[in-house]
Amino acid sequence: MVLLENDPADQELKSQVAPEDWTNPDAQPLYDMVVLGGGTAGLITAAIAAGLGAKVAMIERELLGGDCLNYGCVPSKGLLSVSKRLGMMRRAAEYGIENGASASASFGKVMQRMRELRAGIGHHDGAPRFRDLGVDVFLGEGQFTAENIVDVKLNDGNLRSLRFKRAVVATGAKPLVFPTPGLDEAGYLTNLSLFALTELPKSMVVVGAGPIGIEMAQAFARFGCEITIVAMDPHILPREDPEAAAVLQSVLEQDGVKFELGAKMSRVELRDGKKVLIFERDGQEGEVMAEELLIAIGRSPNVNGIGLEKAGVQFSNRGVQVDDRLRTANPRIFAAGDVAGSFQFTHAADAMARIVIRNAFFFGKGKVSDLTMPWSTYTDPEIAHVGLYESEAEKAGCELSSLRMDFKEIDRNILEGETEGFAKVIFETKSGKLRGATAVGAHAGEVLGEMLIAVTKGMKVSELSGIIHPYPTSVSVWGRLGDKASGARLTPSVAKLLKRIIGWRR
């Protein structure tokens, strides 16, 4: 990751998450838990274990806080908060507000704000805080040298050898970059370097149409950068509901984002001081030129150089191999977070860390497969989802159905002028049990909140109509969908029976 040497905010962040004057503690004779990696999974594991009274050591070779704090969730959402407000201001005329259409952003000030916010949050993940929680924090490179030993080459040049009863591999992941002719020579950005920019590129090619690429494409487009997205997938956000992705793509096109989908990157050239990406699609070549190139095609687990083979831990380029309880082939060692999970989210790493604590210390039987995992893409409009999609009937083991309601039918959204998008529920056709939900629209991540409980608890879709929602709110869409589900069950025979019952009443 790139931190700016002359930026006070970045140096404040560094003083918390990688302090140069840090004094590494002496190693204790035996630790109850050694945590390798100081990202979300490692931090949560260490904090809870220390809070329970365990002797805990945590090792971090770069920056505490990992991906989320330093070059992921926190800085990206800092930029997105500005780009969303820009979008609102440019639509001001719709609300009777004048002169909003000319609103623009000072990129340097936007980035400075982001760095200051990040630094302000940084102390939550900082070395001093975890020392005060009772964790022995070692800043350096850790490697397993035996099934129950981790050696740490400290940043000050010294060496510590840590013996443990239990250990957790929580080393996270790094940007995935496929070898491509000319790419290294031309130079490129990833999320590790993107947030160190101080000047807005006039143009940028974003390779990848997943959440990172799409979020940054929209933000930079609204800041005034010409954006082209190149991706192998036929549509953006391939993991999402295709209808939801289509809503967002339409908005991105209105923002001026161009798309080259179904295209494979072949090579990169330097031409007239710019970077030219040559791609192949349907057997023919095309190209796009820009000042900058952002690679956002995914993440690769950090499994190399940490001695996993010496610890008897099996791994591949997909990550550390674990069972449903996050145990590795070495019964002493667990793994959590991006290095071991198919869901590479901060909240997933948090949940996995809690499973590790239960299973490592309390003979628990916590399973990853028991988790109901939500996620959100923080574009404008947002896309949020929990549970299954209707297309996953085979995974559900039964027939699934869905109901949809557009936000243009919800009074709060009409009043706010936020009518794009929809909400959808997925449920078992026969029983009505909720199995999933999707929302695409303004604040979709917040709107989805109610459905996290409903899906996790296995409520029936018709039960949503019994929940009282304040009027007017966007979350009332779920109650309306519950009404819709109940109405769908009102067959002619049932309606006839109800009419008779009502007629009998005096």
Q: What is the CATH homologous superfamily assignment of the largest domain?
A: FAD/NAD(P)-binding domain
Low-confidence stretches: none
- Give the N-terminus to C-terminus distance in angstroms: 76 Å
Count of DSSP helices?
17
Mean pLDDT across residues: 95
What is the CATH architecture annotation of the largest domain? 3-Layer(bba) Sandwich
Q: What is the CATH class of the largest domain?
A: Alpha Beta
How many domains is the backbone divided into? 3
As an assembly, this protein is: single chain
**CATH-derived topology of the largest domain:** FAD/NAD(P)-binding domain
Widest sheet, order of strands: 1-2-3-4-5
Taken from the alpha-carbon principal axes, the silhouette is globular
Helical/strand content category: alpha/beta
Helical content stands at 25-40%
**Number of DSSP-assigned strands:** 22
The main β sheet shows up as: 5 strands, mixed, barrel
Q: What tags apply to this protein structure?
A:
506 residues; alpha/beta; FAD/NAD(P)-binding domain; Enolase-like, domain 1; 5-stranded mixed barrel; 5-stranded antiparallel sheet; 17 helices; globular
Describe the overall structure.
- This protein has helices at residues 8-17, 40-51, 66-71, 73-90, 107-122, 127-132, 183-186, 191-194, 211-223, 242-254, 346-361, 393-396, 411-416, 444-447, 449-456, 476-488, 492-504, and strands spanning 31-36, 56-60, 135-146, 149-154, 159-169, 173-175, 203-207, 226-231, 258-261, 264-271, 274-281, 284-290, 292-295, 299-301, 315-316, 319-320, 333-335, 374-377, 382-387, 400-406, 422-428, 434-441.
- The chain is an alpha/beta fold and 506 residues long.
- It folds into three domains: 8-78 and 112-175 and 300-370, FAD/NAD(P)-binding domain (3-Layer(bba) Sandwich), CATH 3.50.50; 184-298, FAD/NAD(P)-binding domain (3-Layer(bba) Sandwich), CATH 3.50.50.60; 381-492, FAD/NAD-linked reductase, C-terminal dimerisation domain (Enolase-like, domain 1).
- Strands 1-2-3-4-5 form a five-stranded mixed beta barrel. It has a five-stranded antiparallel β-sheet with strand order 18-19-22-21-20, with helices on both faces. Strands 9-8-7-13 form a four-stranded parallel β-sheet, with helices on one face.
- Helix 9 (211-223) links the parallel strand 7 and strand 8.
